[in-house]
Amino acid sequence: MADRLTRTDVRNLLDRHGLEPSRALGQNFLCDGPMIDKIVRLGRVAAGDHVVEIGPGLGSLTLGLADAGASVLAVEIDRYLIDPLSEVTAGLDVTVVNADAQELDWEAHLGDHSWKVIANLPYNVATPLVLDLLASRPELESYVVMVQREVGERLAAGPGSKTAGIPSVIVAYWGEATVVGSVPAQLFLPVPKVESVLVRIVRAPTPNVDAPYDRLVALVRAGFNQRRKMIRRSLAALLSEEQIAAADVDPTLRAEALDLPAWGRLADT
Ligand code: SAM
């Protein structure tokens, strides 16, 4: 088994390569062996799996994934981290790609087998990227995403709950999301101000409601962008009150009260 990166290893790697963690890129490096092994377990990563790791940083998690016998595609945006990352993962079944995951030509890298995704990204990247990949890349069959607590809870909230938002409905359309653990801030270097959680998302073979995706997204965005208003107001530009009622949805409800089948019926109207 390859050693896990300790806090001292991470500090030494940064010093030796003359680097400081970039705040703008959300660089907080995990340095806790047991937590890394837990994430690998939660990702159900096993020998022979293909895993895309988005935001591998210095390779803390990458080592755990490779150790489990996975073949890893590691997509890192920061060109200054590519040397230390390549050094840490030398000799392992890891392909390092220096790219912004939001701009990557995924088609060219994925081939025709299925993949598991492990991602530890700043929240402003994680949420749009995961929503985009769910909609565009069916070969990505499951995800474990590490994000700050509120963002993770929103991803997993499920439509019809108080904390639901746009991502909750979109994720529920494509699959099932669950908060499966938390990651204390002290396990990172540098120590971030917020606590992180781990969200596991499993993509369903087909969407969970039979409704046109683009229309559903337009309605969900309109509804949650004015979440304090009744949907007869917030959706007025897209549906009349009569159409809402004809879809068997109460026009006086607010967006957060609608479950996925209700959004599906509205999108099908
Ligand atoms: N996974 C590593 C760990 O746990 O130690 C690093 C996690 S750090 C919170 C986030 C990483 O994502 C950084 O290495 C950062 O450079 C990278 N990153 C940020 N935005 C990215 C993007 N759009 N595409 C790919 N990597 C990105």
Account of the 3D structure:
This protein is elongated. The mean pLDDT is 96. It is of the alpha/beta class. The protein contains twelve helices and nine strands. The protein has a seven-stranded mixed beta sheet with strand order 4-3-2-5-6-9-7, with helices on both faces. A two-stranded antiparallel ribbon has the order 1-8. The chain starts with 6 loop residues before the first helix and ends with a helix. Bound molecules: S-adenosylmethionine. S-adenosylmethionine (SAM) binds next to strand 1, helix 3 and strand 3.
State the end-to-end distance. 56 Å
Rounded mean pLDDT score = 96
The CATH homologous superfamily name of the largest domain equals Vaccinia Virus protein VP39
Helix content: 25-40%
Structural class: alpha/beta
The gross shape turns out to be elongated
The CATH C-level name of the largest domain is Alpha Beta
* Beta-strand content bin: 15-25%
Domains counted in the coordinates: how many? Answer: 2
CATH structural fold name of the largest domain: Rossmann fold
- The stretches of 5 or more residues where confidence is low (pLDDT under 50) are none
Ligand types: S-adenosylmethionine
| Order of helix and strand elements from N to C terminus | HEHEHEHEHEHEHHEEEHHHH
Structure summary, number of beta strands: 9
- Our count of helices gives 12
Largest sheet: 7 strands, mixed
Which architecture of the largest domain does the CATH hierarchy give at level 2?
Answer: 3-Layer(aba) Sandwich
- Major β-sheet strand ordering: 4-3-2-5-6-9-7
Cα radius of gyration in angstroms: 20 Å
